[in-house]
Amino acid sequence: MFGLIPKDEKFFVLFKDMTTNIIEGARLLKEMLDSYDDPQQSQRKIKDIEHKGDAITHDIIQKLNKSFVTPFDREDIYALSAALDDIIDLIDASSIRFIMYNVEKPTAEAKELAFIILKSCEAIGRAVAHLGSKLEHIAEHCVEVNALENEADRVCREAISRLFDEEKDPIRLIKWKEIYETLERATDKCEDAANILESVVVKNA
């Protein structure tokens, strides 16, 4: 019977694998926009990261379905894995839009949003690293994620406002508005993951 009871550490390892993967995707997105030498190649690399994320999410759900004992609430494990998967999905979706809309050159605001996404993912990674150990340290990283989301919201809002003031081509306006909003939604998903982590801390304090 004891052999059927899982070791808590496996879930934590999978979550750490997931955040490592997300950080790599965010780093690739930032590099893609910073250099913009070969955006198609960059997007393919990000797509590979997104596929890897799907596989890790599948592993977490499979383990959840087979586990009698879990390190924290099943609902929170499922919600956290879904939120983390959403982050890499939106990083991928952001990169796709630069290719789909034949963007010749990223704007300064797009680069800034990619930088904020990377910082948010790194903060989520630091929070997840404390699962199973020092839960009290998770909150400080979640606060950082919330602040970064607010900053991304400001950058996005100002970028779209400037777009409506300066862009004369309605097609370009629609394209860039969607790009900015997709980038900003990635930080929203980081905040969702942070909120779930804070909930885990409250329940297990």
Low-confidence segments, given as residue ranges, are 1-7
Q: By helix and strand content, what is the structural category? A: mainly alpha
Largest sheet: none
**What is the CA–CA distance across the termini?**
29 Å
Q: CATH superfamily name?
A: Phosphate transport system protein phou homolog 2, domain 2
- Spatial extent as radius of gyration: 18 Å
The run of helices and strands is HHHHHH
- Report the top-level CATH class: Mainly Alpha
Total of DSSP H or I helical runs spanning 4+ residues:
6
* Percent in helix: over 70%
Question: What proportion of the residues form beta strands (DSSP E)?
Answer: under 5%
Any idea how many domains? 1
What overall form do the CA principal axes indicate?
globular
**How does CATH name the architecture?**
Up-down Bundle
Mean pLDDT: 92
Account of the 3D structure:
This protein has 205 residues and is mostly helical. The chain has a single domain (2-204), classed as Methane Monooxygenase Hydroxylase, Chain G, domain 1, CATH 1.20.58.220. The protein has helices at residues 9-35, 39-66, 74-100, 108-128, 138-166, 170-204. Helix 2 packs antiparallel against helix 3 (74-100). It is globular, with a radius of gyration of 18 Å. The two termini are 29 Å apart. Residues 1-7 have low confidence and may be disordered.
